[in-house]
Q: What sequence folds into this?
């Protein structure tokens, strides 16, 4: 009964490949996020979706394309992977419309680009 | 974007000692949150603060929302080895956007 789940947990791939990371939340939240955590552990927001609509799109290369098929899922597709994309990617969810501003995080996906 | 300054960057303490860390910002936030991240895991919420001046405890943890709404601190009393991890402050200034501090890496020596 994991609240926010991500797959895969580890992803090792070659430069230039295309890969996807999936996220699902069973909390009934209407807002989901993707964060990137670099090697110095700095957490930076990438995208925010509210009810399947893009709300926040930080300065992220357009090789990154989030997709939200429904409000419980927010997947992240990355094209033409580069070495600098290596990081841990976290999905999170919250329900700000109900006053639940706390974001609940998934376990992370460690992406290594060789 | 909004910037948070979190300090200290790292702390090395003996078991049983108290710990204090804080975050400051040049901008006003509506909510302050404190998270802990264990190795290989996602951040886990410790305390949420919603009102200026609010002081909230969660076991040995105490956090306060600064009166100016531009700062917050987290105290841990009587630290134990399992307190080891990275602590992040986070400030929210609109419904969907939250910014994180750079983290405080805590090491507790038995």
A:
């Amino acid at each position: 009964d994991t609240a926010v789940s991500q797959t895969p947990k580890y992803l090792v791939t070659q430069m230039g490949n295309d890969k996807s990371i999936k996220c699902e939340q069973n909390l009934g939240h209407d807002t989901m996020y993707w964060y990137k955590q670099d090697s110095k552990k700095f957490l930076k927001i990438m995208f925010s979706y509210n009810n399947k609509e893009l709300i926040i799109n930080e300065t992220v290369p357009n090789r990154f394309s989030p997709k939200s098929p429904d409000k419980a899922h927010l997947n992240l597709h990355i094209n033409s992977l580069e070495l600098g994309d290596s990081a841990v990617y976290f999905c999170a969810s919250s329900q700000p419309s109900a006053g639940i501003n706390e974001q609940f995080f998934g376990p992370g996906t460690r992406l290594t680009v060789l | 974007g909004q910037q948070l300054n979190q300090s200290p960057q790292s702390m090395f303490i003996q078991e049983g000692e108290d710990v204090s860390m804080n975050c400051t910002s040049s901008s006003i936030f509506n909510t302050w949150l404190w998270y802990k991240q264990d190795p290989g895991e996602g951040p886990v919420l410790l305390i949420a603060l919603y009102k200026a001046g609010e002081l909230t405890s969660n076991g040995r943890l105490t956090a306060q929302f600064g009166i100016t709404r531009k700062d917050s601190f987290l105290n841990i009393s009587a630290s134990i080895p399992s307190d080891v991890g990275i602590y992040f402050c986070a400030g929210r200034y609109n419904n969907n956007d939250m910014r994180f501090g750079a983290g405080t890496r805590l090491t507790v020596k038995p």
